[in-house]
Write a structure and sequence with these properties.
Number of helices: 13
Radius of gyration: 18 Å
Structural class: mainly alpha
Distance between the termini: 32 Å
Order of helices and strands: HHHHHHHHHHHHH
Number of strands: 0
Strand content: under 5%
């Protein structure tokens, strides 16, 4: 809805900077976004043709071939669509999701829980090629990020979900915006793990969806209250500036994402 703001937000969130260094993954992210957007349309009954489903399958497949992480994010996207159909068609559910996101972000900031999950998962044959990143010496310190900036970004987006749940109650909201907002919740869950570069790599498959819904909320017709629109812009700028500080501070002369982040 606002190309200039969306581009600026992408820049603050590090998407363009990362693209310079992990171009293979970002190509996969681009295909994933195109496939995900078409899949959402197909799920909602638009362009529900065999040819479109073939195109969606091809784009997802090529994305996964380019970068296998796309497979895991594809599973998350499918669960999101199933969750929307089963339990999340009531707008006030977004308030509950925001509270869950808030608890998740705060819990992982003070806990080694997700690192222990990674250790257990790394023994599975589907993830064994990543086990060295989790079991090597110093992996605990590297992956247990305990980043205050990540925590505050997660809190900001969780608060936005809570606000949307309250504002959307008893209001008609288009289903595309609802689904994209659910993907923003997925984004909070991923970055909220505090798993440093692993969370970053996963979250960049979801970030374009977050940028799109932020733009729709701030500049589209989804939200008609000017105060809420302004709040969306402020939350986006707050999160973006924090993230920009996180990925640039101390990294001069080096290229992210191969350094520990703040």
């Amino acid at each position: 809805k606002n190309f200039a703001f969306s581009t600026f937000f992408l820049y603050l969130m590090g998407f363009i900077q990362y693209s310079l260094n992990i171009s293979r993954q970002m190509l996969a992210v681009s295909l994933f976004l195109l496939a995900g957007d078409r899949l959402i349309d197909w799920y909602l009954g638009r362009k529900k043709t065999v040819s479109n489903m073939i195109l969606i399958t091809l784009m997802f497949s090529f994305s996964a071939l380019i970068h296998s992480t796309a497979v895991y994010l594809g599973v998350i996207l499918m669960f999101t669509l199933v969750g929307y159909k089963v339990i999340l068609r009531r707008q006030r559910s977004f308030t509950l999701l925001g509270l869950v996101g808030l608890i998740w972000v705060l819990f992982n900031y003070h806990s080694d829980y997700f690192y222990n999950v990674l250790q257990n998962v790394s023994t599975n044959r589907f993830f064994e090629k990543y086990s060295g990143f989790v079991t090597s010496n110093g992996a605990n310190d590297l992956l247990n990020q305990e980043s205050p900036t990540v925590m505050f970004i997660g809190i900001a987006f969780s608060a936005l979900l809570i606000i949307l749940g309250v504002y959307w109650r008893n209001r008609s909201v288009d289903r595309v915006s609802e689904i994209y907002s659910l993907i923003m919740f997925d984004y909070v869950l991923v970055i909220g793990t505090q798993a440093n570069w692993i969370a970053d790599r996963l979250s960049y498959f979801l970030l374009p969806f977050v940028v799109i819904i932020i733009s729709r909320l701030a500049f589209g017709s989804v939200v008609k209250n000017d105060g809420i629109r302004l709040l969306v812009v402020l939350i986006a700028l707050f999160s973006g500036i924090l993230n920009f500080y996180r990925i640039t501070n101390g990294n001069f002369g080096n290229m992210i994402p191969y350094l520990p982040l703040l």
